[in-house]
Amino acid sequence: MSTRIPFVGGNWKMNTNLVGGVELAQALVSQLASIESGCEILICPPFPYLQSVGQVLKGRGVLLGAQNCSDEPGGAFTGQVSAAMLADLGVEWVIIGHSECRHGLGESNELIGRKVLQARAEGLKTVVCCGETEEDRHAGRTHEIIENQLRAALVKATFDRSESLVVAYEPVWAIGTGMTPSIDDAENVNRTIRSLLVSLYDSQFASGVRVLYGGSMKPGNAASFIASPEIDGGLIGGASLSTDDFVAICRAVAGASQG
Ligand code: 13P
Question: For the chain, what is the domain count?
Answer without folding.
Answer: 1
